[in-house]
Amino acid sequence: MNAAPPPQQRPALPTFGEAFLYWLKLGFISFGGPAGQIAIMHQELVERRRWISEHRFLHALNYCMLLPGPEAQQLAIYIGWLLHRTWGGIVAGVLFVLPSLFILAALTYVYLAFGDLTFVQGVFNGIKPAVVAIVVFAAWRIGSRALKNNILWALAALSFIAIFVFRVPFPYIVVAAGILGFIGGKVAPDKFKVGGGHGASDKNYGPALIDDDTPPIAHTRFRWSYLITLLVMALAIWAVAMALLGHPVLQDMGEFFTKAALVTFGGAYAVLPYVYQGGVEHYQWLTATQMIDGLALGETTPGPLIMVVSFVGFVGAWTKEIFGPDALLLAGFVGASVATFFTFLPSFVFILAGAPLVESTHGNLKFTAPLTGITAAVVGVILNLALFFGWHVIFPHATDAAPFSGGFEWFYALISVAAFIALWKYKQDIMKVIGACAAIGLVYTYLA
Prior knowledge:
By secondary structure, the protein is mainly alpha-helical. The chain contains 18 helices and no strands.
């Protein structure tokens, strides 16, 4: 099941069970935020298993980048849907976040019940520099394949300058890149007609199951009946779920996290101020210090960073004692589940409703040129994210006013460099690198 297909042989369609096991594995190893998660999926699905070509992978990713919500999870839903219809997308999306929900709930319980996170902190101290390496590696991997000419390199550089120097919000960068791509497709179509280097994909990886020239699969064609049925069922699920939330705190969470899911343009960091304002200041589910601790947990557990909402839900239901003082663990887990459900439900709707339309455009320059521009911009954004993570890891006590204060963590800088070399030069498995870094961080924390 895990063996890579022969280089020149087109892979067979994986069974639903094989896909299920892969999505489950991905849910446990999806560290590194969206850039790291996308890198993991690219390495496994495009390079190794060849379930989808790089061009089609990037085409789907670019659509996900336009949507509110976690783009890596949405990409998993998209590919799962391509392979095994609607249920394939649902399973891929659920398994992407389910392990994270249980892991984060368990860590949050330890955090609230015992307050001693020395062991957990030690593991995370090692994982954080590995995350930096994974994100840098993702920027290099995507950039080396997607930036095929000087114009796309210039777009990536402009994107990086815009977000790093001028703090331009990510949605504006996406829109601007899409417009420039559209114009570029008219003025210089040869520079924008390749989404990710089709020739390079064939040369490096061999034919894919869903390749650039694969005819549209029957279930991927747009149908009004499917769209209407999907929207009606999604609204019904949301309404029934809201009606089942008997406690006022849970009802507030359902409404609040539904709104949060619809404003998460620009990734988790863009929506965190909104979650902070609602969870800390308005509803007072948790304190500001707890919110910061929750972000640290969210950054270093598998799954999307926006999974920090499950921490907020857990702490809020625990603090408000929604089931009484003797059922705090149950209250916390229910709160975390409610926050997770209402945050991620819209992602399934966006992908399952929009993917048939997107699939019909993958060979049309009018639609692909803007998405090619967005791909170039994303490389710059990922590089900025790598610098942001690296700064927090190497200068953990620094501030915006004094960006290099508080001491330089040379040991964690070395871990980052070693992890990057392991990924880049020695082609090591991402999960093995994360495990090794976690063990090193744990030992160093106890010895320091």
